[in-house]
Amino acid sequence: MSKPKNRAEELLDELIKGKTAEELIGQEGLLKQLTKSLVERAMQGEMTHHLGYEKHASSGNNSGNSRNGKSSKKLKGDFGTIDLEIPRDRNGSFEPQIIQKGQSRFTGFDDKIISMYSRGMTTREISEHLKEIYQVEVSADLISQVTDSVMTTVIEWQNRPLDKVYPILIMDALIVKVRDGNHVQNKAFYLALGINLQGTKEILGIWVEKTEGAKFWLQILTDLKNRGV
């Protein structure tokens, strides 16, 4: 009788079958987590733009409107259902734009979500990605506010501490079209997927390639080491 495979062995089998890192992180729910975090942060940025002041800022006192908790919404994504928390305002006048009223699906943006979490993406490139994700015309001021909010989440994620040991490390690349002004170019995004001692898979980091060869790989390994691996 054959020995049951652990989760790490199952994931390796999936790679051998030719599945990409993007497919793996989608099926494991990791891409769904990244999407949820980014979209919720974007809506928080929209709320700040709508009210005209940051959360807990004294400038909001006696402004006539304020944050008032959250409501829940389910969206169908490419890799399953996403449970979102939608911010509300006391006057009931806030309607998020990144997720429209009545919208039930959020698909086709997986590569952009992945690339926005990548170390090496500029603020301008992230802003351009957000413009493409918004499916309605929005103001430059709104995009700027949302970009600032999203950047906070991205930087926290990029710099979070990691475990000391990952028995298995998987590296893969994803090609994404990135807009810079009027130009669109393909960029390679490298994903480091780690399987920890409990057999749980994590996205350790995502990087945009800016150099070639050994220097680039050394940069990735140094980053992982600096974060505790």
UniProtKB/TrEMBL annotation:
Pfam families noted in UniProt: Transposase_mut
Function, as annotated: Required for the transposition of the insertion element.
One annotated GO molecular function: transposase activity
GO BP field: DNA transposition
Residue stretches of biased makeup (Low complexity): 58-69
Family label: Belongs to the transposase mutator family.
Coiled coil: none
Top-level lineage group: Bacteria
Region span, Disordered: 54-76
Organism the protein comes from: Leptospira weilii serovar Topaz str. LT2116
Protein's name in the database: Mutator family transposase
